[in-house]
Amino acid sequence: MTGTSQHAPQQPTHRQPPRTADDTHRAPQHSGHPHPHPRYYEDRSPGSGALPPRAWYERSDAARLSLHGTWRFRLSPRADAEDDAFARPDFDDTQWNELRVPGTWVLKGFGAPAYTNTAYPFPVDPPSPPDENPTGDHRHVFDLPDGWGEGPAVLHFGGVESCARVWLNGRELGHFKGSRLPHEFEVGHLLRPSRNVLAVRVHQWSSGSYLEDQDQWWLPGIFRNVSVHRRPEGSVVDHFVHAGYDHVTGRGTLRVECEPGGRVTVPELGLDLATGQSATVAVRPWTAEQPHLYDGELVTAGERVPLRIGFRTVRVEDGLLKVNGRRILLRGVNRHEFHPLYGRTVGPETMRRDLLLMKRHNVNAVRTSHYPPHPAFLDLCDELGMWVVDECDLETHGFAQQGWRDNPVDDERWEPALLDRARRMVERDKNHPSVVLWSLGNECGTGRGLSAMASWMRERDPSRPLHYEGDRSCADTDVYSRMYADHAEVERIGRRAEEPLADPDLDARRRGLPFLLCEYAHAMGNGPGGLSEYQRLFETYPRCQGGFVWEWIDHGLRQQTPDGAAFHAYGGDFGEELHDGNFVCDGLVFPDRVPSPGLTSFKKVIEPVRIEGEPAGDGGADAVRITNLHDFADLGHLEFLWRYEVEGEVRGHGWLEVPALAPGESAVVALPEAPAEERGEGEAIWTVRAVLDEDAAWAPAGHEVAWSQVPDGRRPVAAPPAATARPRRGEGNVILLGPGTFDATTGALGYLDGVQLRGPRLDVWRAPTDNDEAAPWQPGPRPATEWRRLGLHRMRHRVDAVESGPQALVVRTRVAPAGSPLALRAVYRWSAHRDALRLELTVDPEGDWPVPLPRLGVRMSVSGSLGCAEWFGGGPGEGYPDTGQAARIGRWAMPVDALQTPYVRPQENGARPEVRWVRLTRADGSGLRVEGDPDFSFSARRWTDEELTAARHTTDLRPGEDLWLHLDHAQHGIGSQSCGPGVLPRHRLEVAPARFSFVFSSLR
């Protein structure tokens, strides 16, 4: 088959390898270093033989052939372990293994994955990779479908990590680097009707690996689409859709550049234009809130390409990032591409699921950390509505460990590779209206290479501002971006009062730029805390235009124990000599894409509608203030529902009439009259919810967008019940008090109504969260380290006195760690009222405590048969002082096992906040009831905190016979010190005198 293509291949940036006798190319083989002629996988070039990059589109009337499926595969331990004879069409590969493509071989039993955050997992000697360089040879035989015809065609690779060399039917096409970027080769003249043999050699390590140090698993292989595309004469070489919007006139201007020329039709707008011609008409603009797309078609002599056109204009003006003339607020997340079984091979169903979850949790922006995503993801962002920061496949973070010495972005020899990566991103993704910012890359330091990339991007696409965080001077960017700035610094930046730069011109320019947090609120394990305080800053200071939580998903790889129990693995679980542990598990959804409590809290914090009670004279509210926080949409797509509850039981419900408020507008809406007979009968609460009034592309009618709760009047306060029994001695060294039986020596409660239990006893320890452990590079003390240093995980309890009085049993104790004078004096005062026991606990500290406590409360064990929990308080999910935004007051019930949050690395979890009472029961309803004053949090689990602290994976937790119940007066906040600021002062559990009480009663 013969044919030539209008697509001219790029000129090689280094000499071609010599041809072998069978007319394939062979890489020069050398022994020793340095090589007189660098081998292709270790030279600094981006590759050779590939076609120029072009805009991606999902389909056209030109034929395409997917090459997905089962390929033949051979793994070698070194790049030079095998020659290139495998590329011959007649090579016998029958003894090779099979491998599914797209995929990654280390997840199919060939070698093992490895995780590092910043350190390169090989000696740093750019551009050379190590000799230990796993290399996968791939072969695939395919036939062309009937009717394919002759003529030009291209072979398309969507993504290969990290360097690929390609042959078709024995002829070398070239090689390439740039793992998360597309590469194409002209193959029309080589194709046969049948028995085409594609051979691909993939090296895990290459010079390109130095540009891809992106805080993720190192997963080599062909992990994105491989396909062959027919390119008939006159087909589209490339096209660029320009679709701007003038918010003053309400008109859009369309111009489509195309090579070769053709025509563009947009039936809905009545447009039929020659390419290169402009037309201005009235249009509905595209925004993330209202993503209107116009269907069009680009027609050339050889191809018809469907277009989806979104009219919008992005500008930085007046110190703000604006779309269609309005400031936007980014409620964003960082998103790596990840699947717990398939690594970076993510299918369209998973992409859609991600975006639906984001939209349903009020997320409106994605930063594609730290590389361009599969282009189908951007199609979905166009369709469903999402602001996108499209980031280049570039990070050299490992060079920070050597003071950025030898950093490729400041070495002109690397500039062709850097520019190639910029071009491949911009050209591929330039027609997506969702892409509103280009990002040069991530954590690369500074250098002339970044400036060259920025210069090329501005010239090629002046319609989009540029982003990069790593240069505080913002010399090459249009927005001021930071990572993990704390709340105080964000406020200073919001006031444009940040620390000045040394250069007054650069300082003045930066002060005039809008501000983004490209990463904040590190969502590792339990957390993140501090979200509400960040959001208030974003809403207060126009310059602060939001940010992107780090990150979307935990990168836990699904594994099984020998007995078949599933868990998610992280760094170090595969025998890596260098790794960063579970730092790869820092997402708002678990590896299986189940939302974590962090995501539900984030949804509540970033609600685009604010609902607040309007105070009434009795301490309650008779109206609510509704504020529209959308940037573009009015509230016409929402309906507002109210519910009236007393003591957690619904006593009325209905609809509120709310006007279709424009963005930024507020209205006060009266609540209906509460049922008169219900007033004073208990704690009464209004709940007002904003829900979709009809189906949307991303959620069904009735989906909840925002909610708030407003008390109806002051909460009734009950006086402590008077004691009705006095302590008395019983047989066997016990003290009897009402339904309780106590040890006369220790004062410990042993039985309640004849049912055995242990405790309650003062407890201050919690299994440290990832944010308690904190990152070693973070300023200030690391909470868990300080807690262990003081010995809070090994507190000793000394009983000083057990005193029986006329109405109470008083137990005086001192709780302290060995080797320290610090202590807590705890006095337990027990009294009985009919069938209930009341405990009043007074805690007074001794000494000068240098750190806050993890928690302050009591711990007790009860029968493991009490497997059902019901409570009146915050729920249904967990909540901590700075993470409980999504907890609403109500009556909730679930199995005790469902109270647990399965963080990939086990840690403190499952506390339900603001609890008035809790019941733990058996199936027949018998069990234990606990009331608290003041409100408390509770957690119940089938293992101790010591076991929870020691566990590395969820499968390490083995249920015991007892149930361990925590009743906490207070907990320390969570913060995000795993890679961000710690707990804010108002959420710290400082050591101070405390008094709290619980009432225990049995249920029969």
Describe it for me?
The chain is mostly beta strands and 1004 residues long. Helix content is 10%, strand content 36%. Strands 48, 49, 50, 51, 52, 53, 54, 55, 56, 57, 58 and 59 form a twelve-stranded antiparallel beta sheet that branches. An eight-stranded parallel beta sheet has the order 30-29-28-27-26-33-32-31. It has a seven-stranded antiparallel beta sheet with strand order 1-10-9-12-6-3-4, with no helix packed on it. Helix 1 runs parallel beside helix 2 (375-384), helix 3 (415-429) runs parallel beside helix 4 and helix 5 (487-494) packs parallel to helix 7. The model is unreliable at 1-36 (pLDDT under 50).
List the helices and strands and how they pair.
Blueprint: E1 47-48, E2 64-66, E3 69-78, E4 97-101, E5 114-116, E6 132-142, E7 153-157, E8 160-161, E9 163-168, E10 171-177, E11 183-186, E12 196-203, E13 216-218, E14 221-222, E15 226-230, E16 238-246, E17 251-259, E18 263-266, E19 271-274, E20 278-282, E21 294-299, E22 304-309, E23 314-317, E24 320-323, E25 326-327, E26 330-334, H1 348-360, E27 365-367, H2 375-384, E28 387-391, H3 415-429, E29 435-439, H4 448-460, E30 466-467, E31 480-483, H5 487-494, H6 504-511, E32 515-520, H7 531-540, E33 544-549, E34 557-560, E35 566-569, H8 597-605, E36 609-615, E37 621-628, E38 638-646, E39 649-656, E40 666-670, E41 684-692, E42 704-711, E43 728-730, E44 734-737, E45 740-743, E46 749-752, E47 755-756, E48 758-763, H9 770-773, H10 783-790, E49 795-804, E50 809-817, E51 823-833, E52 836-846, E53 855-863, E54 868-875, E55 888-895, E56 912-921, E57 927-941, H11 945-950, E58 962-971, E59 994-1003
